[in-house]
């Protein structure tokens, strides 16, 4: 095969491959889009908040432990923030800017017998105990949009379990729960200091 023919064949193969890649990319992008009915069914009632893509890659704001109901409720919680949230927390900016999103991930607290054994042998007599995030409980989101959510202090709320939003009755409790934190722009979470 002469060099010019080889170049032509290579160019043809690249052209076909490029067309296939564009088709696959376009098909994939279209399949990710939801129909209006699907998007609505995945949105929280009242506020229309959906689960933001990639939120598990956001940065840590803080961690918490929640206990109650005579020891029956034991949860570990992590709050994550998008870039706007992290910038606002670090600068102590209040009110939070529109576009801020805070995610709260909740798990049942589980104890770790293996860790406890290691701690007991490494630190005898210290009575140290370890726990970790066990089964998932839910994930909640606060989305700042001062115009859209003016009636709820500028925040929209979403509470999801296994990707499904809670019902309207549950979402009616969101803003009243956050009202006591009005002086902190309705946010309970404090930015955890760097160790």
Descriptive account of the structure:
The chain is an alpha+beta fold. Helix content is 33%, strand content 27%. It has 6 helices and 6 strands. It has a 6-stranded antiparallel beta sheet with strand order 1-2-3-4-5-6. β1 (59-68) and β2 (73-81) form a beta hairpin. It is globular and about 55 Å long.
How far apart are the termini? 67 Å
Give the uncertain stretches in residue-range form: 3-38
- Which band does the percent of strand residues land in? 25-35%
How do the SSEs run, as a string of H and E? Answer: HHEEHEHEEEHH
Kindly report the spatial arrangement of strands forming the biggest sheet.
Answer: 1-2-3-4-5-6
Number of strands: 6
Radius of gyration: 24 Å
Mean pLDDT: 84
The number of helices is: 6
Feature tags:
6 helices, alpha+beta, 6 strands, single chain, 195 residues, disordered N terminus, six-stranded antiparallel sheet
Task: Quickly describe the structure.
The chain is α+β, with helices and mostly antiparallel strands and 195 residues long. It has 6 helices and 6 strands, in the order ααββαβαβββαα.
